[in-house]
TrEMBL record:
Superkingdom assignment: Eukaryota
Residue ranges crossing the lipid bilayer per the database entry: 23-43
Pfam families cross-referenced by the UniProt entry: DUF7870 (PF25276), Methyltransf_11 (PF08241)
Species name: Trifolium subterraneum
Identification of the protein by name: Methyltransferase type 11 domain-containing protein
Residues of the Methyltransferase type domain: 150-200
Organism placement in taxonomy: Eukaryota, Viridiplantae, Streptophyta, Embryophyta, Tracheophyta
One GO molecular-function entry: S-adenosylmethionine-dependent methyltransferase activity
Domain DUF7870: 290-378, 418-515
Record-linked SUPFAM superfamilies: S-adenosyl-L-methionine-dependent methyltransferases (SSF53335)
Keyword terms: Membrane, Transmembrane, Transmembrane helix
Length: 515
């Protein structure tokens, strides 16, 4: 009995250190578990490495790559990432970007201390290259994040505050692929510090018109470097590198601002690259046609549309302004929406038509805004005269072509319908509606009022907001019905119309003769 008690006492004594040891092990495991949970949060939820996080237990190695996911497909994705990171394409691209960023450091556009952002980078290889060469504080954004290099975001919605970065990089032609380049540009301007640098890589050459449209999106940025690089694979044999410096006085100053393009003195400047396009446009018809109803209609086959000569991708909005629209089928439905080359862009249409006969048919049209007034040189009430030449059979729904006149100048001898309508200052409306960053196509068929409206567009500088004009000029043309007789509706001659067309082209405005 005594022996048994002694054995029991020895077992009890031995159990004390074992319990303490178990407790210590449990505490240690709990600590490791807490660290693991925090690590998983930083990598999977915060989407950033410890280099850019505000709070971490430890730092990750510079070359560490990891993606943790909670869904069932995580394992296969991690396996795919491992294959990606070891592929020849990945290694070649990282070497390429490392060389690019080394050169940018040498040029003073980037430094190891720069807070750097790579925009629209699906795999983060440019971010990896930045970190490899010593730019520690670098992160990427993409719609689908690849952690820890890339977090969720897009060029049109950068998830960082104003003036957060010293350096922004847009590689692999990501800017050119954006459906909203103006918003993309505004976000870069917002998040880039004043005196910071933005670098863009375009994978294919752009025409001068397109390049200047791109620069217009960054109106207070300065071009500091243009460079052509040899690409790293066959899909990108050459890369055009553009480096811009942010000279805006405050954050977001690069945003769209129509006032920036307005001119208080009414003048506007047409750059040389736009004037160059006039040289390759179709020639004007110098000699008055004897059968204008045939010659001018055939001329549409010779027209060189602006959108067939240049890339129009770097524009904010795409607008078609039909001044004197008449019915929907007159030109909007029959010509513009079917024949004008739009480069897969969606155009919003403004139909300006004073004749209320046509207003109802525009009510259900999508992507169209009806302006039910007469385009004029100021806001005032006008007389709307409906008449035709003898023998002229141009009628729509029982009405002939309408012409507007100031009330005090309406001829008492005029025989026909006369209505009072509201006219509006078209040039002022245009300046308040569109900006230089918009692509604006205008068709004008206003029964002689073009001799009032075009000078007003020049006077106010609104003419420079229009990229392309299709103009029907009205003159005392030969009549189809009556050989040897001219129309009595219009006082202007063909030479005066030709002078109007030439003045537009000489000013750098691409205008086409319409019928």
């Amino acid at each position: 009995m005594k022996k048994k008690c002694t054995v029991a006492t020895m077992e009890h004594t031995a159990a004390k250190p074992s319990s303490i040891r178990n407790l210590l092990i449990r505490l240690l495991l709990s600590g490791v578990f807490i660290i693991a949970i925090r690590f998983a949060y930083v990598i999977s939820i915060a989407g950033e490495s410890c280099n850019v996080s505000d709070f971490c237990f430890f730092s990750l190695p510079e070359t560490f790559s990891l993606s943790i996911d909670t869904d069932s497909g995580a394992g296969s994705r991690n396996s795919s990432l491992s294959e990606l990171y070891s592929s020849k394409e990945w290694l070649d691209s990282v070497n390429f970007y490392s060389s690019v960023f080394h050169d940018l450091i040498g040029g003073g556009y980037l430094s190891p201390e720069s807070k750097s952002l790579c925009v629209e980078t699906p795999t983060g290889r440019d971010v990896f290259a930045l970190r490899e060469i010593g730019v520690k504080n670098a992160v990427g954004i993409s719609k689908k994040s690849v952690k820890p290099l890339v977090k969720s975001g897009t060029g049109e919605r950068i998830p960082f505050g104003d003036g957060y970065f010293d350096f922004v990089f847009s590689g692999e032609g990501s800017f050119a692929r954006s459906a909203k380049p103006a918003v993309f540009a505004a976000e870069i301007a917002r998040t880039l510090k004043p005196e910071g640098f933005a670098v863009f890589h375009f994978t294919n050459p752009k025409d001068t018109y397109s390049f200047n449209s791109f620069l217009d999106l960054f109106h207070c940025f300065k071009v500091v470097k243009l460079h052509v690089l040899e690409g790293f694979d066959s899909s990108m044999p050459y890369i055009h590198e553009t480096v811009l410096k942010n000279e805006c006085v405050d954050y977001g100053a690069g945003k769209l601002d129509s006032d920036y393009y307005s001119h208080s003195n009414g003048n506007c400047y047409v750059p040389g690259y736009k004037k160059d396009l006039i040289r390759i446009a179709e020639p004007l018809i110098e000699k008055e046609p004897l059968k204008p109803w045939i010659t001018l209609k055939r001329n549409i086959m010779n027209i060189k549309y602006l959108s067939s000569m240049v890339d129009i991708s770097f524009k904010n909005r795409y607008l078609y302004v039909d001044v004197g629209a008449r019915s929907y089928g007159s030109s909007i439905g029959s010509w513009f929406r079917k024949q004008y080359p739009k480069q897969n862009k969606t155009f919003h249409v403004y139909a300006i038509e004073a004749d209320k006969t046509f207003h109802k048919e525009y009510g259900m049209k999508k992507g169209l805004t009806l302006i039910p007034y007469a385009a004029w040189v100021k806001n005032e009430t006008l007389a709307f005269e409906i008449h035709r030449d003898p023998g002229e059979h141009v009628e729509v729904k029982g009405r002939g072509m309408g012409r507007i006149q100031p009330l005090q100048t309406t001829g008492k001898e005029f025989v026909g319908e006369v209505e009072k309508i509201q006219g509006f200052d078209f040039a002022n409306w245009l300046k308040n509606t569109v900006s230089k960053n918009d692509f604006v196509v205008m068709k004008m068929d206003v029964e002689g009022t073009e001799f009032d409206l075009i000078p007003r567009l020049f006077e106010t500088g609104a003419i420079c907001l229009i990229d392309e004009i299709f103009l029907e000029c009205h003159y005392n043309r030969w009549q189809r019905c009556c050989p040897g007789q001219r129309s009595s509706k219009y006082e202007k001659t063909y030479d005066q119309c030709l002078e109007l067309f030439n003045s537009l082209r000489q000013s750098g405005i691409l205008v086409h003769q319409w019928f």
